[in-house]
Design brief:
Helices cover 93% and strands 0% of the residues. The protein has two helices and no strands. The radius of gyration is 32 Å and the shape is rod-shaped. It starts with a helix and ends with a helix.
Length: 98
């Protein structure tokens, strides 16, 4: 093989290496961006899950509030149930914050 052919092959190989290096750097950049997007989506999911939990609690409260009759004994019973729910909610919040 002549020195000219070797130089051409070396030049060709150098071009291929440069191309692969550029592709590698581009893929690294894309990977970092995807990781950032994934982190943002995970935060959004967590926020929405908390919102869903709160809406379920609100829904349960409203459901109970609309079924309360005007009888004082029944009202006292429901107040105890609501107080228990509030304690349960506080316990859950403490567990979430722990």
């Amino acid at each position: 093989m002549s020195s000219t052919e070797l130089k051409e092959k070396l030049l060709n190989l150098t071009r291929k290496v440069d191309t692969l290096r550029k592709r590698y750097l581009a893929l690294q950049s894309e990977n970092r961006e995807m990781k950032r997007t994934l982190e943002c989506q995970a935060i959004e999911i967590e926020k929405l899950e908390k919102e869903i939990a709160q809406l379920k609690i609100d829904n349960e409260f409203l459901r109970v509030a609309h079924t309360v009759p005007r009888d004082p004994e029944v009202v006292a019973k429901y107040k105890k149930q609501v107080a228990k729910m509030v304690r349960d909610i506080d316990r859950c919040i403490k567990q979430l914050n722990a």
